[in-house]
UniProtKB/TrEMBL annotation:
Record-annotated Beta-hexosaminidase bacterial type N-terminal domain positions: 23-146
UniProt cross-references to CDD domains, sorted A to Z: GH20_chitobiase-like
One cellular component term from this protein's GO annotations in UniProt: membrane
Cleaved signal peptide residues: 1-19
Family matches, as Gene3D superfamilies: Chitobiase/beta-hexosaminidase domain 2-like, Glycosidases
Name listed for the protein in its UniProt record: beta-N-acetylhexosaminidase
Enzyme Commission identifier(s): 3.2.1.52
InterPro entries: Beta_hexosaminidase_sua/sub, GH, Glyco_hydro_20_cat, Hex-like_dom2, HEX_bac_N
GO biological process: carbohydrate metabolic process; glycosaminoglycan metabolic process
Provenance organism: Niabella soli DSM 19437
Length: 537
């Protein structure tokens, strides 16, 4: 009897340990229970899409299975050996999902297309972590219930300073999707280069697209409108919304190189840095640009930058148009001119039925709270975040430390930003908590989510981009998706180790935090590459 009791306890204990085995997914799901019933995925597996609105999720799954595992999954001819995508009959259209992998088949259920696509992304990650044997892929049994902590889980790529190209952006979008990041903020214009075709003003791309941060004579590089449409659709299949940034009134050097009649001047370090607020035609010109951009990006969101304008306003007080503007509108100083400009452009954005997005400098203005989103980036200016929240603005948290990925991730790294002892290590990215900077529970509801930004002054090639993004993008994903009480850095690193072979398989030149010497830091220095000031974006 004692032996039977001991055996029963042993088996029961084994079942508990089996069920509690850590799910390998990044980001960590809300609930995940391992079962003893796995599924064999093979060329005979069929796909069932219950409703037409899930067609895109089905297409995404089929395309990725073929690309990642060479498995051609077609429409199911029976109810056996299937992957079923379903949507719940509920009015709650959130991003939650349920994923069940059982002997009979796989089911992904959500409250919306976004939720089902998230479930598909989790399924794909479990699939790529497994090796195919004789054409079969043996998946462990799982029952997963999951939902994100934040609705905005973003990544920004600056392609003005160095252009990465369509195929690299697609690869980035693939990994964003696998990690359930859902906002791609695309910084397409700045001082070194203008990277988007505007048909009404072709010189913006042809002349403004010349050069980059380290080589001002480089050939023009930009995305055609056809490229944009392709990438926006590619992202949408993966539940990623693309938000374009057309920076103004500062960071306008490339645009002013193409159409100097709209320049407000600059200085030696930042030539032709601003658009001209004193020229009435400037507003029509920029509005025409934004109209074309708004049509290309169905997100209904336009990011206008609005940061660091004072870097290049040296000539504004000598500008007769600006002096006249200040007299007519009783504007006391150049900050007031800057605000006047942004209010005018905000009206243009709102007239297109789009929302205005801007960096935290624009929290100074009193724009419509339901149409404006503020991005808090200056970690050393918490008062700016408090102002935005006190005014009722919805806010995205993307502080330079730890979410500017051009900061190095190891103290030994030689290229990239490092302010004293300050840099963006993997644990810093992972452990960041919004609640430490937004302590008021009512205002925490105004925080849409978290975003990392990759500025590319020191990201001169594709290897360098990989090195700065991976594996920190995985830590970012878990910081944005997983509830704080479920996060554990040590457990995360166990799962992260399993991801490294996937990076290698996708030809990603990543930083290995477990063996830093394995993959050398890609370093590129030029004598004329200027140093970044502590204030600059």
């Amino acid at each position: 009897m004692r032996c039977i009791l001991f055996l029963s306890l042993f088996l029961f204990s084994g079942l508990i340990n089996f069920a509690q085995e850590q799910c390998p997914l990044i980001p960590k799901p809300l609930e995940a229970v391992k079962t003893n019933e796995g599924f064999v995925l093979n060329k005979y597996t069929g796909l069932i899409v219950d409703v037409p609105e899930l067609k895109d999720a089905g297409t995404y799954l089929q395309q990725q299975l073929l690309r990642l595992k060479q498995l051609p999954v077609g429409r199911a001819s029976s109810s056996k050996n299937t992957i079923r995508l379903s949507i719940k009959k509920t009015s709650k259209a959130d991003e939650s999902y349920e994923l069940i992998i059982a002997k009979e088949g796989i089911t992904v259920t959500g409250n919306s297309l976004a939720g089902v696509t998230n479930g598909v992304s989790s399924l794909l990650q479990l699939i790529v972590l497994q090796k195919t044997e004789n054409g079969d892929l043996h998946l462990s049994g799982w029952k997963i219930k999951d939902a994100p902590a934040y609705g905005w889980r973003g990544f920004m790529l600056d392609e003005s300073r160095h252009f990465m190209g369509k195929e690299k952006v697609k690869q980035l979008l693939d990994w964003m999707a696998l990690y359930k990041l859902n906002r791609f903020h695309w910084h397409l214009t700045d001082e070194p280069g203008w990277r988007i075709e505007i048909k009404r003003y072709p010189k913006l791309a042809l002349l403004g697209g010349l050069g980059n941060y380290t080589n001002p004579t480089a050939a023009a590089a930009y995305y055609t409108q056809e490229d944009i449409e392709e990438l926006v659709h590619y992202a949408a299949l993966r539940n990623i919304t693309v938000i374009p940034e057309i920076d103004m009134p500062g960071h306008a050097t490339a645009a002013n190189r193409a159409y100097p009649q709209y320049s407000g001047g600059g200085n030696t370090q930042h030539p032709d840095f601003t658009f001209d607020p004193g020229n009435e035609r400037t507003y029509g010109y920029l509005t025409n640009i934004l109209r074309e951009v708004n049509v290309l990006f169905p997100s209904g969101m336009l990011h206008l930058g609005g940061d660091e304008v004072s870097f290049g306003t040296d000539k504004w007080l000598q500008n007769e148009g600006i002096k006249k503007l200040m007299q007519q509108h009783a504007i006391k100083d150049l900050k007031g001119v800057e605000h006047y400009f942004m209010e005018r452009m905000a009206d243009s954005v709102f007239s297109m039925h789009a929302r205005l997005l801007a960096w935290d400098e624009m929290a100074d203005l009193n724009l419509p709270k339901d149409k404006t989103i503020i991005f808090w980036w200056r970690h050393d200016k918490p008062g700016q975040l408090k102002m935005a929240l006190d005014k009722g603005y919805r806010t995205v948290i993307c502080p330079r430390l730890p979410y500017y990925f051009d900061f190095v991730q190891d103290s030994a790294h030689r290229m990239g930003r490092k302010w004293g002892k300050g840099f963006a290590s993997l644990p810093d990215v992972y452990n960041y908590k919004v609640t430490t900077v937004v302590t008021d529970k009512r205002q925490q509801a105004q925080v849409l989510g978290i975003q990392a930004n990759l500025w590319t002054e020191t990201v001169t090639n594709l290897n360098r981009m990989d090195y700065m993004v991976f594996p920190r993008i995985a830590a970012l994903a878990e910081a944005a998706w997983t509830k704080n009480e479920l996060k554990n850095y040590d457990a995360f690193t166990v799962r992260l180790k399993e991801q490294l072979p996937l990076y290698r398989a996708d030809d990603i030149y990543f930083y290995n935090p477990f063996n830093p010497a394995e993959i050398p830091e890609p370093v590129f220095f030029r004598k004329d590459t200027r140093n970044l000031s502590a204030q600059e974006n």
